[in-house]
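Structure tokens please, single chain.
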Amino acid sequence: MLRAQPEEVPAYLSAADVGLALIKPSFSKRSSSPTKYAEYLAMGLPVLISGQVGDGRVIADRGGGVALDRFDATSYAEAADELDALRASPRTHFRDLAAALFDIETVAIPAYRRLYRELLGS
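Here you go.
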């Protein structure tokens, strides 16, 4: 099995054309948000992701990748065509999407702050 050291991962991802994060949909995975999604987008890669897992549908709807709902030969072929078209987008498109959806300072912290204020009634 090929393994990369953590410091090598950005170089490997820079050489990639797409990111793959196919996760078997289940009840517990519906509300998860795999870190791989944000990491691939931040590296400028479109992603092939499971449509019923976490933010898969949101990412696909925003032009960040293709969300699979079925795992069969026809769906894979269609996804490959869609990914090929997405690869024509500049890598900055995917990096900008990662920042818009997942940035700690501008997205996560304000969202948690709003949530806690709402929960605490202040």
